[in-house]
Amino acid sequence: MSMTKSMVRARKGTATRTAQRARRHLRVRKKISGTPERPRLVVTRSSKHIVAQVIDDTRGHTLVSASSMDTTVRGGEKTKTERSREVGALLAQRAKDAGISAVVFDRGGFQYHGRIAALADSARAGGLEF
User: Fold this and answer.
1) What is the pLDDT of residue 75?
2) C-alpha–C-alpha distance, residues 106 and 47, integer Å
3) Could you give the angle at which helices 80-97 and 115-125 cross, rounded to 10 degrees?
4) Average pLDDT for consecutive 10-residue bins of the chain (130 residues)?
5) What's the rounded Cα separation, in Å, for the pair 86 and 41?
């Protein structure tokens, strides 16, 4: 029986991409937590969509959220990066309406590049401080 690359990788003990991201996320979360004064802005990315939430970790509540699945962002011929920018601006607006001006950024183990950076930049431009 011939072994596939994933079988060889699993056999060697190297972690999958998902496991590596989870490890990075845990490493970041050891240092970062959201407080009522400065909640945590969490970004979750999939192959199609991006979701951003502002969370108060002391109570475990989501205060504000925005995603590329919202009706205001959906539709049209836009790239995923353009949609991420719109999600960041929408999140900043919703956070302002909720009285939140400063957050701690949690990139969720993802590299600060591309869609994650676009969302963060547009949230900063919208008035969030981090």
Assistant:
1) 85
2) 19
3) 40
4) 54 78 93 93 96 96 96 91 97 97 95 96 96
5) 16
| Domain residue ranges of the chain, discontinuous segments joined by + | 33-126
CA dihedral 91, 94, 99, 103 (to 10 degrees): -10
Distance CA 111, CA 129 (A): 20
The owner of tokens 């199609």 is 48
Give one DSSP letter per residue of 20-66, joined into a string.
HHHHHHHHHHTT----SSS-EEEEEE-SS-EEEEEEETTTTEEEEEE
State residue 38's pLDDT score: 95
What pLDDT is recorded for position 27?
93
pLDDT at 12: 59
Decide the pairing of beta strands 40-45 and 104-106. Answer: parallel
Angle at the Cα of 46 (from 88 to 51), degrees rounded to 5? 30
Cα 96 to the center of its chain, rounded Å: 19
User: Is domain 33-126 in CATH 2.102.10.10, yes or no?
Assistant: no
pTM listed for this prediction: 0.84
